[in-house]
Amino acid sequence: MTAKPINRKSDKPVSVQGYDGLLSGMVSLIKEARRVSARTVNAIITATYWEMGRRIVENEQSGRRRAGYGEALLKKLSADLTSKFGRGFSRQNLQQMRQFYRAYPPTEICQTVSGKSGKRQTPSGKFTLDILQDRFSLPWSAYVRLLSLKSKQARAFYEEEALRGGWSVRQLNRQIESQFYERTALSKNKAAMLTRGAKPKPQDVVTPEEQIKDPYVLEFLSLKDEYSESELEEALILHLEHFLLELGGDFTFVGRQKRLRIDDEWYRVDLVFFHRRLRCLVVIDLKIGKLTHADAGQMHIYLNYASEHWTHPDENPPVGLILCTRKGSAMAKYALEGLPNKVLASEYRTVLPDEKLIAEELKKTRKLLEGRG
Question: How does residue 150 score in pLDDT terms, banded at 50, 70 and 90?
């Protein structure tokens, strides 16, 4: 049986102009969908945290006669919620939810939502999440920043301007840091100030991907946040982890890209080990560029945090290792200043690996990785 010839009359060439328009439209559609998705997730997070704050406050009020009831409640809630849902429910986070509810009481939400959409409370007097979403249109990280303001008037001003101008969290933070509210109040031409202040700068732009990777969003959705700024940095951190574990049995791995929050800022520590012989944490921070005095200052902040939040009562103070892998050179420096006594510092220097050995290993590894690239 002979094969029949294929009819290709329908296989017309695609119009370049028509395809370009189709592709452009698809790209715009996907970008808009991602923006809407990010806004929706953020709105749900904010609404949920306000409602959690309400329940905390009402429970505290019912037990206010008992001394220390509020702190005990937050501690137990934090432990139980963390065991069920993982990160995102520390005592500090729960305190912020409580503060959020108190800063935006139900009476204010009734007025705002009713005037905005005509929606009301449920018969039980409570708000549903969709009603709260209408009220809190900014992401939770923006409200966390607003809560740091002592002035209620300033908070209301920045919230209104952020909503009106579509500010990102970066733009909101920049305006607060530059005292935009105070400068506008003192200006004779307030309209010009508001118009000029509404214009975003290049560094203010936040992509939908960045919004989804916001630590608050990651915690709420139980997503892991273990990405590095570059493949080179990730490879070096991974190699260093293996290298230290191979030096002997003293180093025990604790975590990579371990996150911590100080006030409203998030930080990541590249590596954390526990040294069994010294009985202390070893906090490691890797710098791709040149080592600066600011890096040393940041390490001491990490150590103070680790000493307060990660160190057990029977352990020695943590020690920091700052690594610099600048192209063509490498440097490693232990942060031993501030230890309780010189004897302990001397012991640390004797037991910990030689700084030059670690620096040479990183330098060799970087050259190897760059050669592969």
Answer: confident
CA-closest candidate to residue 353, choices 277, 300, 269: 277
Do 215 and 275 fall within a single domain? no
Q: Which of 220, 241, 267 is the C-terminal boundary of a domain?
A: 220
**Cα-based torsion angle of the residue sequence 156, 158, 163, 167 in order, rounded to the nearest 10 degrees:** -160
> What is the number of H-type helices and E-type strands within the chain?
16, 5
**Domain boundary at 159, 191, 220, which?**
220
The partner residues of 251 in beta bridges, in order of sequence, read 275
Six token digits for residue 342: 């010189």
| Assigned domain for 1 exists | no
DSSP 65-89: TSTTHHHHHHHHHHHHHHHHH-SS-
Query: pLDDT digits over 164-179, tens only?
Result: 888 888 888 888 887 8
- Evaluate whether 182 touches 197 at the Cβ level (below 8 Å): no
Q: Which pairs count as long-range contacts for 67-73, CB under 8 Å and 24+ apart, including other chains?
A: none
282 touches 272 (CB < 8 A): yes
Cβ-based neighbour number of residue 257 at 10 Å: 16
Burial (Cβ within 10 Å: 0-12, 13-18, ≥19) of residue 166: exposed
Q: Structurally, how many domains does the chain consist of? A: 2
Distance CA 172, CA 151 (A): 16
Residue range(s) defining the domain that contains residue 169? 27-220
- Torsion angle of alpha carbons 33, 39, 44, 46, nearest 10°? 170
Residue 296's nearest CA partner among 250, 257, 248, 333 is 333
Classify residue 267: in a domain, yes or no. Answer: yes
Where residue 360 sits, what CATH number does that domain have?
3.40.1350
Same-domain check for residues 101 and 181: yes
CB atoms under 10 Å from CB of 274, counted, come to 19
Beta-bridge partner residues of 331: 324
Range ranked top by mean pLDDT from 48-52, 337-341, 342-346: 48-52
The one-letter code for the residue type at 260 is L
The helix (run of H) or strand (run of E) holding residue 321 is strand 319-324
